[in-house]
Amino acid sequence: DMWYVADETLTVNAVNALAEKGRAWLAGEQIPPMGDFGGSFQLDFLPPDTPLTAFVQFQDSCQIDGASYAISLIRDETPPVVAYARLHGGAATTSTQTVTLAVQASDAWSNQLQMRTVLCEHSADGQSDQVCAHPIDDEPYGPYRAVQSVTFGDTPAHKVALVQLRDISGNETAVLETSVLYDPIPPENMQIAFAEDDATRVAAIEG
Question: Which residues contact 108 (CB under 8 A, 6 or more apart)?
Answer without folding.
Answer: 49, 76, 78, 81
